[in-house]
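Appendix B. One record, verbatim.
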Amino acid sequence: MKKISSGSTVFYKKVFPLIWFGLLAFFVATAVTGGAIENGQWMFLVMPAFMAVFGFFLMKKLVWDLVDEVHDCGDSLLVRKGSEQERIALSNIMNVSASTNMNPPRITLRLVRPGRFGADVSFSPPSRVSFNPFAKNPVAEDLMVRVDKARVGRAV
């Protein structure tokens, strides 16, 4: 088994949101204790509230739906999210899409038959340094080729 997901997923899902919301709470607490409310400077509370709501929905859409680990088992993928695991056969994958121009980069697998984690399973592949913004992700490219080969054996 080869791990094809990033080791930074825990940072993106747990540590970064803690830092984001912690800094916003610290800023609000500092503004309140510094007398911003008494001076009528409500913008010191409105902007952090806006940033908290924006950050929540952005993380919900782009980060919190990522599975924790994905291992390549040859003809299937072993997916883990929390304490739950599922084995997804390559022949059960309809589509592999890669979004590399975002942070964290993500690969989304659309399944023929939804599994424990739903019809779409997203994970973050290992990061690599590239100065080419149009470079393709090797993990996604490999999965696309192997899923297409496995699809031949699947009844259409």
